[in-house]
Amino acid sequence: MMTLIRWAACGLAAAGFLATETRLQGAGATFPAPLYARWVAEYGKLNPSIAIDYQAIGSGGGIKSITDKTVDFAGSDAPLNDKQIQALGQGNVIHVPSCAGGVVPAYNLPGLGQDLNFTGEVLAEIYMGKITRWNDAKIAAVNAGSSLPDTVITTAWRTDGSGTNFVWTNYLSTQNEAFKESIGMGTSVKWPVGQGGKGNAGITAIVQQTKGAIGYTEQNYASENKLTYGKVKNLEGEFIKASPESISLAGVGAVGQLQGDVLKANLWNQPGKGTYPIASFTYLIAYRDLNNLKSREQAQALVDYFWWATHEGQQYANKLEYAPLAPDVQHKVGDALGHFTYKGEALKPKGS
Amino acid sequence: MTDAADETPARGAGSRPGDGRRRRFLSPDAAFGWMSRLSACVVLLMLAALLFVLGEAAIPAIRDYGARFLVSSDWRPNELEIPKRDARGKLVFDGGEVVTEKIPPSFGALPVVYGTLISSALALLFAVPLSLGAAIFLVRIAPPRVRGLVSFLVEFLATIPSIAYGVWGLFVLAPLLQDHVEPALQSLLQHLPGFGWLFMDTHGRPLALTGRDMFCGGLILAIMILPIITAISRDVLHAVPRAQIEGALALGATWWESIKVMLAYSRSGLFGAVILGLARAAGETMAVTMVIGNNNQIQPSPFAPAQTMSSLLANEFSEAETVAHRSALVEVALILLLLSLAFNIVARMLFVGSSVQPSRAA
Q: What is the rounded average pLDDT of the residues A281-300?
């Protein structure tokens, strides 16, 4: 028995010794996790000596982990605020968008022939409990031709603090002053009516099971789960259905907001024909000087991976129904990624 | 019998002089004795550490909100930015711009304390009659073979993980309530005087009957605490001396009256079983989170979504970003821990009282 254990121990030690690969550890946002998993798999095929692990523990958890330096990079759906950047070290953060997503109003009203139209105003009043039935005059006003039922509306929301909440509440706050003053913006807020589900799965279960329910999820999640979702009126007055293309367009409008090494932009309500109005970037975050990593090789691997993900990796975004970065946005991201250092020495991304 | 009694004391054998063993620095018996003591201490230390860590992490919330935490029903983790208004309600301007003011986050635990107490009470309401019925059946009616089988099944139910009950509740029980039970109750009761409030929220708006509400939370909890109450009640009833029952029968009691004697004899033990079920219900997390609707509100209707202390923690803790939010959640955990501790102490006192001094209970 003892011999067996000794042999097993030897085997483990040998396996550890042989694996001289470079490891990168990331954690954070759940929304881009399927895309990040794909990236890791594809990048691993191209670079077998590099092992990347991304744990989808939530944006808040990711930010906490990078602040505590327990991970090498973090993902977040909400951009870092000034206080969070200070905690990481002012001027020592590289913060770039990796792809974009849109939040859609998904509903359960069987037998409706066509997609419903929503305005921000109507959505805000539904979530404030002012509009309580589907045949309300304000909903009917933007849905001529749909026979709306006299069903009570059940609003569904995310109970966990999430980037989806952040985008949804920020958008609705721009659409309705009373919403902004009573519910406000944030990753978790207090909703006056309806019921909460944990995560995308929780909110999806509520919408799927309840006639008359409305909820909000990321567009790719809604389409994967075959949820019916409506069109939303954009700044140009068009009713637009969310798609990777209409969400990508929101990034084009926001290029002007992207400055420096901490690239962040609000993508809701961007101008331009065909733009979906409830969109957001999701971000990759790392220290600008990567001295928290073990070696220069490891630091170089991180920089190369960030470059690959935001450039070659973008082709996988569309396949998984994420919105790829628009070329102008990619350009700014490329500039920021050129500023990484390791103990003061500049690191040039491979491929730049 | 006497041999066994001699062997039981842990340190008796080792300290006996001249037993032929070599004396060591620490005899095996003594070492074992100390290890046992250490293990017992670890349990106490864990509880102390738990209280200390929770208490310490909750300090910011305790300091900021004090007793208000327990009576406020406002749970808003985000900061609000609103236009400043003067005493007469007019907007304040500064150089043509509206002055805004920030309202800090606010945390009040009343809705979740309410949610925990009401959902647990509903669970007891549903579970206690069933459990007692089952326990009486097992002790007095069931033939031995059936008794073995049913006892096994009851104990098996207790081992099913919480999440399994939750998934079943979400995908089977809640849709059943939504599509059949609650609409039936509504059409039956809605127009009867005195029942209208069941289908309205506090603003007089119609409630959407979704099946994910306090009622469903209570039902799923009832199913989950049924095994523990049944198993303990069965043991308590089993411990009633035969003489008590036979005595009652000899005095001319009917079969039902003899069961009443049995229940009266073991009432404090049964009450202990119920309290243990209550403690389990109050702390139950995943299953409840999946079916209760997760809205931090106080609504009189059981068909409105609600939230319990444990479901609030499950929902918000992992993504709580600010210190204020986290420490408020920790304070909720602390309240839950103290509540469970209180329930368990009460149950223990009743339970010990019943088994050590049965004559007092009778």
A: 94
For A258, phi then psi, to 5°, come to -85, 115
Nearest Cβ partner for A189 among B76, B82, B315: B76
Residues of A with CB under 8 A from a CB of B: 57-61, 63, 129, 132, 152-154, 159-162, 169, 180-182, 184-191, 193-198, 202, 205-206, 209-210, 212-213
Decide if A3-101+252-346 and A102-240 have a common fold: yes
Where in chain A are the domains?
Answer: 3-101+252-346, 102-240
Please give the C-alpha separations between residue B226 and each of B170, B277, B304, B310, in angstroms, as whole numbers.
19, 8, 24, 20
Q: Tell me: the pLDDT tens digits for B220-270?
A: 999 999 999 999 999 999 999 999 999 999 999 999 999 999 999 999 899
Which tokens is A182 given?
Answer: 């009573």
Identify the architecture of domain A102-240 in CATH.
3-Layer(aba) Sandwich (3.40)
Residue of B nearest to A161 (CA): B319
Choice among A30-34, B7-11, B23-27 with the minimum mean pLDDT: B7-11
**Which CATH superfamily groups domain B110-361?**
MetI-like (1.10.3720.10)
Residues B79-113 have pLDDT tens digits of: 998 888 888 878 888 877 888 889 999 999 999 99
Per the CB < 8 A criterion, the answer to whether B131 and B237 are in contact is no
Interface confidence, given as ipTM, is 0.80
The predicted pLDDT at position A7 comes to 56
- Contact residues, chain B, for A196 at CB < 8 Å: 293-295, 305, 307, 315
The domain segmentation of chain B, as residue ranges, is: 75-107, 110-361
- Does CATH number 3.40.190.10 belong to domain A3-101+252-346? yes
Interface of B with A in 198-227 (CB under 8 A): 201, 203, 205-208, 210-212
Other CB atoms closer than 10 Å to residue B190's CB: what's the count? Answer: 13
**B77 and A198: CB-CB below 8 Å?**
no
SS3 of B275-334:
HHHHHHHHHCCHHHHHHCECCCCCCCCCCCCECCHHHHHHHHHHHCCCHHHHHHHHHHHH
Q: What is the 3-state secondary structure (H, E, C) of chain A?
A: CHHHHHHHHHHHHHHHHHCCCEEEEEEECCCCHHHHHHHHHHHHHHCCCEEEEEECCCHHHHHHHHHCCCCCEEEECCCCCHHHHHHHCCCCEEEEEEEEEEEEEEECCCCCCCCCEECHHHHHHHHHCCCCECCCHHHHHCCCCCCCCCCECEEEEECCCCHHHHHHHHHHHHHCHHHHHHCCCCCCCCCCCCEEECHHHHHHHHHHHCCCEEEEEEHHHHHHCCCEECEEECCCCCEECCCHHHHHHHHHHCHHHCCCCECCCCCCCCCCCCCCCCEEEEEEEEECECCCCCCHHHHHHHHHHHHHHHCHHHHHHHHCCCECCCHHHHHHHHHHHCCCEECCEECCCCCC
